[in-house]
Amino acid sequence: MSEIQFSDIQVAAERTRGIVRRTPVFTSRTFDALAGACVFFKCENFQRGGAFKIRGASNFLLSIPKDDLPRGVVAYSSGNHGQAVAIAAESLGTSATIVMPADAPALKVAATRAHGGRIVTYDRASEDREAIAQRIAKETGASVVPPYDHPWTIAGQGTVALELLDEIPDLDALVIPIGGGGLISGSSIAAHAIRPGIRIIGVEPEHGNDTLLSLRAGERIGVPLPETIADGLRAGKPGALTFPIVQKHVEDIVLVSDPEIRDAMKFLLMRMKILVEPSGAATAAAVMRGKLPPGIPKLGVILSGGNVDPECLTEPRA
Predict the structure, then answer these.
(1) Measured in Å, how far apart are the chain's first and last C-alpha atoms?
(2) pTM reported for the whole predicted model
């Protein structure tokens, strides 16, 4: 695969304009006082499908050769990526099959079906979702749409930073959540092309720190599937394509706990009146808790999505 260029992200922004929304940037004086910095929140919770994933999914589908697209697409996902692929496929008039775990939240299954996605379930403990997707693709001729580890996906995700820096061009740092690494990879390529001195800080859950461990080791390290409310950040191992990009562009990775994420979700909901899922609120939690390097006056913080399971809005019982 060829190296992803800034021009690929610019092309993706133009290509996906009819499907992807330009999301708003919010601020909060109260949050700024807590953070000791000027903070600009890029609100991907207002994106189609409720998360940034539609950017990569739509760019991928629009990059598939026109003769292949009618055969449909297949993706594996327990949540936002599956919904995004279904929305993109619906928008382009093709079919989407989504391989989802049998225990996936009913709300996410329903949302995927609402956009025409055909659900194929599997057992997390005993079956390989990627192998199932590849088998379906072989049988039907459908194209597999990876959740993060592909140039088309990464270029699409990079349009988040492209938009944010177009609106707020003098940011000193971007704070970005890390799951498989597609969002931070694409966004960091775009950010450093636009503003070479900008600092890129990644955020992971403390029990899902595979990218931090990998950076320290100098190679991709896997961890057991982490137990965290930030279900979108449970990749377990950095992508083969995304990890070298993270090595090149990301200055530091900080970790947040589930209680810290809950506190950030509560602040964003009660004070800013926006509903953000745990994976998206992880970045706000890192800033609220003072986990970033000191002395960064102007921060761009990506809130990656807003698809919240209802139980996440209640305090866990002892």
Answers:
(1) 49
(2) 0.93
Q: Give the C-alpha separation, 290 to 65, whole Å.
A: 47
Q: Enumerate the H helices of the chain as residue ranges.
A: 6-15, 29-35, 53-63, 80-92, 106-114, 129-140, 151-157, 159-167, 182-194, 210-217, 242-249, 258-270, 278-288
- DSSP helix/strand/coil, 212: helix
239 noted as active-site residue: no
Q: Which of 53, 117, 188, 231 is catalytic?
A: 53
Average pLDDT over residues 25-49: 96
- The identity of residue 136, as a single letter, is I
- Please tell me which residue, 208 or 151, carries the higher pLDDT value: 151
Catalytic-residue membership of 290: no
Query: Tens of pLDDT along 200-250?
Result: 999 999 988 999 999 999 999 988 877 888 888 877 889 999 999 999 999
Active-site entry in 210, 258, 260, 277: 210
How many Cβ atoms sit within 10 Å of the Cβ of residue 161? 30
> How far is residue 246 CA from its own chain's centroid?
14
User: pLDDT tens digit string along 252-261?
Assistant: 999 999 999 9
Q: Which of 8, 44, 149, 204 is catalytic?
A: 204
Q: Is 231 a catalytic residue?
A: no
Q: Is 298 a catalytic residue?
A: no
Q: What span, in angstroms and rounded, lies between the C-alpha atoms of 75 and 77?
A: 6
Whole-Å CA distances, 124 to 79, 98, 101, 119, 309: 14, 15, 6, 15, 19
- Of 49, 180, 208, 300, the active-site residue reads 208
Active-site annotation holds for 304: yes
